[in-house]
Amino acid sequence: MAGTVAQVAFFVALIVVIVIHEAAHFGVAKWFGIKVEEFFVGFGPRLWSFRRGETEYGIKAIPAGGYVKIAGMNPYQETPEEELPRTFGAKPIWQRALVIAAGPATHFVLAFLAFALWLGFVGRPVATDPLVAGVSQTLGGKTSPASQGGLKPGDRIVGIEGVEDPTGDELRQITKTHVGEPVTLRIQRDGRVFTVTVTPVLTVEEGEKVGRIGVLLSAAREAEGPVASVTGGARLVGSTLVGQLEGIGRVFSPEGISRVGQLLFTDTARRPSDAVGVVGAGRVAGQIAASGRFWDILLIFGSLNVLIGFLNLLPLPPFDGGHLAVLAVEKVRGKKVDMRKLVPISVAVVAFFVLMSVAINYLDIAKPVNLSP
């Protein structure tokens, strides 16, 4: 139940995030006196709308985000002469840049808030005996060793093969190197300690054959104070951005695109390190919540916002970063760019990203990533 709630909450939050993005464009444009003709939640056929002043607000049939229609941004739209002073192109470059940058900026702010809340109210995991957060009922199509051994969420693993108070890494290393061999675990449950024997089975993890028993581990948490949460949240935004840069470079490299094709057209197994789409991120959020770590979805939410913010800043039309690049070119050249000449590039960029998105989300359904170790 918790997993389903988390998935629904995740997708609702994602729609809200996109609407906030568009609301930032809307608000800054209004602030500078630029005419905004439409502000809609969703795309496709209009379901309901109303007009207040010069702007039409409403809801459309496909709940996949939202958009604002700012006067003068459509290069093919004719604008009455009396309204030209209030169009996007009539404003100074710095004002237009702020209108564009406001949208991506919201994602980094939301990521910072999510990370700070996670640090302040949930806390980072601290080193302690591994705690069983979830037990996979099956592994490799058969009953998992953990399920066979009677392990339950809340069990604390205080020993394994003579190793007292093992770390999570030590537990993983022993299970990975003892495939087909009985392994003795010392379990602490409800104040008593007893032993359980399990036999790790061979599975594939990130392309490597390893031994697993089918448990999801958790750990004790240590919440941080207000100041540490704020500074830590800012640092997490920075470190996540660096990681996203590396990940995006890997996914959209020739090797990354080839990897997606291999996954689509062969029986190649999906790795946990492979790219996931919105569907996969929602599924991961559900797995985390189902394991008893509901509020760890704040980390996923924050990371996803950093990713969306960064993608929006790519200097390619029609992304916001593409518009900012055009403004930079106009500043250097001293004259405006004919946006109609960039339409073919915009179409090609959109087509590429739509195809990649559809492919990765299809893989999220056909070959889902499983977090259980």
The SS-based structural class is alpha+beta
**Unreliable segments of 5+ consecutive residues:** none
* Shape summary: elongated
Strand content: 15-25%
Number of strands: 12
Beginning-to-end CA distance, first to last residue: 21 Å
Helix content: 40-55%
Q: Helical stretch count?
A: 10
User: Largest sheet at a glance?
Assistant: 4 strands, antiparallel
Compressed to H and E, one letter per element, the order equals: HEEHEEEHEEHEEEEEHHHHHH
CA radius of gyration: 25 Å
Q: Return the average pLDDT rounded to an integer.
A: 88
Side by side, the strands of the main sheet go 7-6-8-9
Task: Based on the model shown, name its key terms.
373 residues; alpha+beta; 4-stranded antiparallel beta sheet; two-stranded antiparallel ribbon; 48% helix
Summarize the structure in words.
There is one protein chain. With 373 residues, this protein is an alpha+beta fold. Helix content is 48%, strand content 24%. The protein has helices at residues 2-31, 93-122, 145-148, 168-176, 226-251, 254-265, 278-290, 297-312, 320-333, 343-366, and strands at residues 36-52, 55-70, 124-135, 138-139, 142-143, 156-160, 163-164, 183-189, 192-198, 201-205, 208-212, 215-222. It has a four-stranded antiparallel sheet with strand order 7-6-8-9. Strands 1-2 form a two-stranded antiparallel sheet. Strands 3-12 form a two-stranded antiparallel ribbon. The model has no long low-confidence stretch (mean pLDDT 88).
